Amino acid sequence: MKKSTLISTLAFSLVMLLSTTLSAQTYSDLDKSPLDAASFPSSYKVSEKQVKVIYSRPQLKGRDVATLAPDGKVWRTGANEAVEITFYQDKMFGDKKVKAGTYTMYTIPNEAEWTIILNSDLNAWGSYSYNEANDIARVTVPVTQDEESLEAFSMAFDDDGTMYMGWDTLRVAVPIK
């Protein structure tokens, strides 16, 4: 009996050693532009969600917004993958009715106004494969200035469902009803 216990213990130890060695993983470092999400309403009840946006948050790190999101050029509205926005029910995006579903969201920044674009292409990295033919809706909104500077690009919703974007002292309000 002692012999079988010893053999079992040795066999188990060998299996554990091999499985640890064979399944060792290499994990990536933390992303420099962390993934974040904002939703409306902001309650934690999934059944109440109407809109959710998933985006990465680039940081200024001594650079200016115009360098990171050049005026007049399609921008991914954040960093890394293009932003994904999910409407859990039909909504008005500006003055355009948008059906429930998931879309990518791009932005064309300009000094006085930003054009916010919903596009049907999904799983896009950046804005490199952006195709205007697949646009679902566009809304152009004014840029305002705030006294507070935000180091990281940020998105949030107010109690009425308006989506706000802010970076450095720039602020943009996107009407969603």
TrEMBL record:
Residues 1-24 form the signal peptide. InterPro entries: DUF2911 (IPR021314). The keyword Signal applies. Keywords: Signal. Pfam families: DUF2911 (PF11138). This is DUF2911 domain-containing protein.
